[in-house]
Amino acid sequence: MTIAALQQMKREGRKIVGVVVYDFQMARIVDRAGVDIVSVGDSVGKNVWGQESELDVTLDQMLLACTAVSRGVQHALVSCDLPYGPVQQGNDVAVRAAALLVKEGGADMVKVDAAAEFPEAVRAIVDAGIPVWAQFGVTPHTHRGQGEGGGGKGSAGPDELVAQARLLERAGAVMLDFTHSGPVAGPAVTAAVSIPVIGGLGGGPWLDGRVRAIGNAIGNLASALDDTTERYANVAKITLDAMKMYSDDVRGGRQIRGK
Fold it and tell me: How far is the C-alpha of 249 from the C-alpha of 21, rounded, in Å?
């Protein structure tokens, strides 16, 4: 998969499949399934390391996760999130961080969150030769310092969101991640730019494709044991049942399964 191929998929109306993954083994599985993009999200902090927020994730942590995932991917494009901090600290810091994720982490492109607030950082990273997947809409980064209700860029109407998308396209972004697009602004933005527009939460078939965190898609988070969300599988429940059987075998003096 290449960025040019993704852009051709948009022109031809073929949907792009993305998935957020945090580790080598899962990266191998989703790559074998034929997804187009494997995204290493800063949600790794909450879902793998138990941190309070995506905003607590460091560049070193993102590098660790990105390196593991990139080793497991042979066919899809690997994107790695820039954590909160480098972009906010200035263009030079953002470029150095992006270069680290590409050169040492193995990323094919980097994702810049709250990108509509930092188009100059997007342009600087692109000018350094690093493709940017620009995220905008309602995200944890756009809520930083704004309280639980959010606001600011996240409260923009369809016309402003179209303007933000066009701004990011002009800044050189190769793709957009439109979070919480909805059925009004989503189609408007998708039609307004020539680069692919995909999204996760709040997205729909009106976008050029979708991206979903692996935990939400297949239920491999502990929270999936107790909710009723419709998923493609419930790996947490399967794992819980398997561990109960394993415990029974050990306690019953029977030979255990697996090598």
Answer: 32
CA distance 234 to 145: 35
C-alpha count within 13 angstroms, C-beta hemisphere, residue 250: 7
50-77 confidence digits (pLDDT tens):
999 999 999 999 999 999 999 999 999 9
d(Cα 258, Cα 253) in Å, to the nearest integer? 16
Report residue 31 as tokens.
């790559």
Q: Provide the whole-model pTM.
A: 0.91
In order of their start, the domains of the chain are 3-218 (3.20.20.60), 223-259 (no CATH)
Residue 140's identity, in one-letter code, is: P
Reported as a single tens digit per residue, the pLDDT across 214-240 is 999 999 999 999 988 999 999 999 999
Q: Which of 12-26, 154-168, 207-221, 233-247 is predicted least confidently?
A: 154-168
Place of tokens 């009723």: 228
DSSP secondary structure string for all residues of the chain: --HHHHHHHHHHTPPEEEEE--SHHHHHHHHHHT-SEEEE-TTHHHHTS--S-GGG--HHHHHHHHHHHHHH-SSSEEEEEPPTTTTTT-HHHHHHHHHHHHHTT--SEEEETTGGG-HHHHHHHHHTT--EEEEEES-TTTTTTS-TT--GGGG--HHHHHHHHHHHHHTT-SEEEEET-HHHHHHHHHHH-SS-EEESTT--TTSSEEEEEHHHHH--SGGGGT-----S--HHHHHHHHHHHHHHHHHTTPPPP--
